[in-house]
Amino acid sequence: MARKESITKEDILKAAFEILKEEGAGQVTARKLAAKANCSTQPIFRVYSNMEKLMEELFGEACRFFEEFYASVPRVTVTPFVNLGQAYIKFAEKHKRIFEFIFLSPERYGRSMYDLVNCSTGNVSKEIQAATSQGCRNASDLFMKMWIFIHGAACMSLTGDYDLSEEETMRMLKDAYQSFK
After folding, report:
1. Does a structural domain hold residue 81?
2. Do 40 and 1 share a domain, yes or no?
3. What domain range includes position 74?
4. What is the DSSP string of 6-65?
5. Model confidence over 106-162: pLDDT tens digits?
6. For residue 162, what are the contacts with CB-CB under 8 A and spacing of at least 6?
7. What distances in angstroms separate CA 131 from CA 52, 54, 88, one per listed residue?
8. Hey, is 180 helix, strand or coil?
9. What percent of the chain has pLDDT over 90?
10. What distance in Å separates the CA atoms of residue 48 and residue 28, rounded to the nearest whole number?
11. What would the pLDDT profile of 5-27 be if each residue is shown by its tens digit?
């Protein structure tokens, strides 16, 4: 009779995500993962042929986490790109290690920055459509200008150089939109 598997793929991925949240992607090693999942490294390599396969799946999990976070942030303005910017900056502030893994890592597993922010729900596409419907002639260019601004602010939060309140951030994003428009 075959021995029952006690450590599942979900257990391994959950433990890897916890390490990612607490310590960062660079700390997701087979040994640390085995300790976190309370198993040997053998079950990890039974499920994943190598750590790269695990990291790719962990990347997908992190992207889903961002998508859920974005969906949970209340929309408080109709000004295009402002809610998106607010959520992105807030995500960087609250989930630094996950933000770094998704948005600052050179390995994106075939996804562009646009794909990562757009998510499966079309976040960016909806904002571009909203800007167009509000009379913006070149909403894609406007998005690029806003994105450079938004991404810069989010990165500043990682180093502790961003200390604006949510209200100040909202006002700054609206001002940037009007300036770039």
Report:
1. yes
2. yes
3. 63-180
4. -S-HHHHHHHHHHHHHHH-GGG--HHHHHHHHTS-SHHHHHH-SSHHHHHHHHHHHHHHH
5. 999 999 999 999 999 999 999 999 999 999 999 999 999 999 999 999 999 999 999
6. 89, 93, 153, 154, 156
7. 39, 39, 18
8. helix
9. 95
10. 14
11. 589 999 999 999 999 999 999 99
CB neighbour list of residue 27: distance below 8 Å, 6 or more residues apart: 19, 20
Same domain, 29 and 2: yes
Q: How far apart are CA 141 and CA 42, in angstroms?
A: 50
Cα separation, 136 vs 146, in Å, equals 13
Other CB atoms within 10 A of residue 125 CB: 13
* 56: in domain: no
Does a structural domain hold residue 57? Answer: no
Q: What is the DSSP string of 71-140?
A: HHSPP---STTHHHHHHHHHHHHH-HHHHIIIII-S--TT--HHHHHHTTTTHHHHHHHHHHHTT-S-HH
Separation CA 120–CA 64 (nearest Å): 9
- What is the Cα–Cα distance from 87 to 170, expressed in whole angstroms? 10
For the beta carbon of residue 124, count every other beta carbon within 10 angstroms: 20
What confidence tier does 46 reach under pLDDT thresholds 50, 70, 90?
very high
